[in-house]
Amino acid sequence: EMTGTGLKEIGNPSAVFLQGKPSNISGIATVCVLEGTRPIIAEVQALVAPTPFPAPRRVSVGFDYGRFNLLIAVLEKRCKMFFGTSDVYINVIGGLRIDEPAADLAVAVALASGLKDFIIPEDTILIGEVGLAGEIRAVTALEKRVSEAKALGFKRAVIPSRNRIDFNSEIELVPVDNIRDVFNKI
Questions:
Q1: Where do the domains of the chain lie?
Q2: Which of 97, 177, 89 is nearest to 133 (CA)?
Q3: Amino acid 108: pLDDT
């Protein structure tokens, strides 16, 4: 971090990205991504707002635009959620750029939360890749991601059921097979 006296080391970047996180608001999800080999907790915000215009806007800041549109299509086809008359915005807080598929689940659930106006529990982290069939695919370094979430006080982790869980976790692991399962379990 740049201060008035020069650069200072940030001990835990995840804590910085979670500062000021709003509570009890729809459209907010948390994910653990890897920057190199370091796990980073990131907040994803989605806003879904009705529009009177025939061509709704799609805006993605900090998340791949192609994956963003893919996740909207999966939610429409597999979960019968209709975004066609709404502007849809997604933003990764703190200027972080997320390029890995492990963030798909958090983005998809944030989008659904923004559309349906339900609140994702603050103590829940979402990790997983979403396939075109709506399946939740395995991710790498799951143990490292879950450990980082635990260190920052998270109580539950929604994870792919396809991941081998051969480690002891001190937080509740909620394995899911597909995107529809997630909405029954959070």
A1: 22-185
A2: 177
A3: 99
Tell me the C-alpha distance between 111 and 151, whole Å: 26
* 3-class secondary structure, 50: strand
- Average pLDDT of the chain is 92
Contact 139, 163 (CB under 8 A): yes
- Give the pair of three-digit tokens for residue 38: 């370091």
Rounded to whole angstroms, the Cα distance separating 138 from 164 reads 8
Q: Which two tokens stand for residue 26?
A: 């729809």
The whole-angstrom separation of Cα 43 and Cα 106 is 9
* pLDDT computed for residue 13 by the predictor: 55
Pairing relationship of beta strands 86-92 and 58-61 according to DSSP bridges: parallel
75 in Cβ contact with 111 (< 8 Å): yes
- Top-tier CATH class for 22-185: alpha beta
- pTM score, two decimals? 0.89
C-alpha–C-alpha distance, residues 181 and 134, integer Å: 10
Query: CA nearest 126: which of 174, 166, 70?
Result: 174
Tell me how many degrees the CA angle 164-165-168 measures, rounded to the nearest 5: 160
Distance CA 62, CA 93 (A): 8
